[in-house]
Amino acid sequence: MVHKKHIYFLGIGGIGMSALARYFHAQDYVVAGYDKTRSPLTDKLQEEGIAVSLEDDIQAIGQEYIAHKTGTMVVYTPAIPSDNVLLNYFKNEGYSLAKRAEVLGIVTKQTVNLSVAGTHGKTTTSSIVATILQHSEKQFSAFLGGISTNLGSNYFYQKGNAQEHLSITEADEFDHSFLHLSPDYTVITSTDADHLDIYGKKEDLEKSYVEFSQLVSKESHRFYAKGHAAHIAGVSYSATDTSADYFAVITRKDGKGTHFSINNNVGKDAIPDLYLNIPGHHNLENAIGATLMCLKAGVSIAAIRSGLAQFKGIKRRFEYVIDREDMVYIDDYAHHPSELKAIICSVKELYSTRKITAVFQPHLFSRTQDFMQEFAHELSQVDELLLLPIYPARELPITGVTSEAVMQQVTLTNAQCLDKEHVLKYLENSKVEVLLTLGAGDIDRLVQPIKAYYSE
Question: Within this chain, do residues 178 and 270 fall inside the same structural domain, yes or no?
Answer without folding.
Answer: yes
